[in-house]
Every structure is written in C-alpha cells, then in structure tokens.
Amino acid sequence: MASDLDFSPPEVPEPTFLENLLRYGLFLGAIFQLICVLAIIVPIPKSHEAEAEPSEPRSAEAPKKPKATVPSASKRPKKETKKKR
Predict the structure, then answer these.
(1) For a designed S-S bond to 15, which of 11, 19, 59, 83 qualifies (C-beta 3.0 to 4.6 A apart)?
(2) Residue ranges under compositional bias (Basic residues) (predicted)?
(3) Using an 8 Å Cβ cutoff, are 29 and 37 in contact?
(4) Measured in Å, how far apart are the chain's first and last C-alpha atoms?
(5) pTM for the structure as a whole
(6) What is the pLDDT of residue 16?
(7) Which of 31, 50, 47 is nearest to 39 (CA)?
(8) How far is residue 42's CA from residue 48's CA, in Å, rounded to a whole number?
C-alpha cells in the first residue's frame, strides 16, 4: 500500500524568457505604483530656492494687457433692438 503513493515532486517546466520578463515587469510595475502612492502620502518639504523660482515668472505675467470686453446683446441700445414698422 505504501508503494502505491507517489511523493516525488511534480515535474514543473522551466519558465521561458517571456514568462521571466513578464514576472519581473510586474514586480517593477508594482514597485513603481508603491513609490507613486508614497509620493502622494508623504509630503516633501520645499527648499527656499524652489520657492524663489516660481515667483519670477508670476511677476513677468503681471504686465499683460487685460482682454477687451465684448458688449453683449442685452446691453444694446433699445433703438437697435426694436423692429421698424
């Protein structure tokens, strides 16, 4: 009865190159996702140099001319909107 049981390990084929590539690609993708989630959760303090740089372009944008306002149809004089009979 003991001779009927086969306790040898099952034969598993060696993984192919594409299976290995897929496995390690999935590992790298998971690590990348964890890094992205941690970047959202953990705040990174900004240095004083990084704060000084964005203020310069804002001052350059200030002298822009404001856009000209287009008169709307509701603000036309009454004479233009009335029909002539």
Answers:
(1) 19
(2) 75-85
(3) no
(4) 115
(5) 0.42
(6) 95
(7) 31
(8) 19
Secondary-structure percent of the chain, ordered helix, strand, coil, rounded to 5: 60, 0, 40
Calculate the CA 80 to chain-centre distance. Answer: 51
Question: 């496995």: which residue's tokens?
Answer: 23
Amino acid at 43: P
Q: What pLDDT score was predicted for residue 51? A: 53
The rounded distance, in Å, linking the Cα atoms of 50 and 55 is 9
| Averaged confidence pLDDT in the chain | 75
For the chain, how big is the Rg over CA atoms in Å?
Answer: 36
Which class for 41: exposed (0-12), middle (13-18), buried (19 or more C-beta within 10 A)?
A: exposed
User: For residues 67 and 80, what is the distance between their CA atoms, to the nearest angstrom?
Assistant: 26
Q: What is the pLDDT of residue 4?
A: 73
